[in-house]
Amino acid sequence: NDSNNNADSGRVEKFLVEAKPIKGTSARVLPQHNQDLISKDIEKLDQEVALELQSSVKNRAENLMIVDLLRNDLSRVCEVGSVHVSKLMDIESYATVHQMVSTIRGVLNTASSSSESTKSTVDVLIASFPGGSMTGAPKVRTMELLDDLEEGVSRGPYSGSLGYVSLNGAIDMNKIIRTAVLTPSQDYVDEWNVSIGAGGAITALSESNDEYEEMILKAATVMKAVQTWSSESSVAHSKLFKASHQKPEGEAKVTDPWI
Prior knowledge:
Elements: E1 3-4, E2 14-19, E3 22-27, H1 39-54, H2 57-75, E4 84-93, E5 97-107, H3 121-128, H4 132-135, H5 139-149, E6 163-165, E7 171-173, E8 180-184, E9 192-196, H6 208-244
Antiparallel strand pairs: 1-2, 2-5, 3-5, 4-5, 6-7, 8-9
C-alpha cells in the first residue's frame, strides 16, 4: 500500500490504502513448439480467452463478493466516504495467465477526534488479515468451514502475507500464492520437502472439474520450476559426489565432503 508523503510538517500526513484482490484465472494462449498458428492468430485466441474470463458470470460473482468484503474491511480504518472501487473486474495479463483483478482504495483515518481514534498502517493489516480473497465471505464462518474441510491441517505460509513495514509508516503486503515452500528433510542430508499451495473459490455456480483444472493451472508454473531445480540439483550433486571420490595423484586418501 502506498503513502502520499506531505512535505508540510504542519499538516497531517495522509496515507492511501489500496487492495487488489484477484478472483478469476485463465490460461493464456501461447506459442508452442511445432505450432502452425501464426502470431496474429495466437494473439486473437489469447484475447478471446481474456474476454471470456471478463464475461464469466461465475468469476464476476466471486470477484464482486470479495470486493464487497474488502470495502467493509477498509471502511473500518479509512476516512468515512473515502473507500471506493477505482477498477472493477479489470483483466491483467501475465506471462502464463489472465487474471480478473479489482482495485479498492481509501484514505487512512489519521485524524484524531473525540469520536474516532487515529489509525496506523498496522491497523490496516489487522483489519484486512487474513485476506478476503483467500477466505471468502462471510470471513469468520468460511474460515471455520475451511478448517473443518482441511481437517485442521496448517497451510503454513500459503495464503498468508509477505511484505514490509517501513519506518515512514508505509506498508506493502502480498498474498503468498504460486509459491514453493522448502523445508529440510528429516531423513536424508541434502534433500528437501517441497510444498506448493493452490486452491480456488467455490460458489453455487462452480463446476468441480473447472475448479480442479484452475487449481492445477495455478500450481503448474511453480511445479515446473521446482522440477527443473530438482533435476539440476541432482545432476550437480552427482557430479560433485563423483569428483570427491576420484583418487588424485600422489594422495592415498580422499575425504568425503559430507562426513
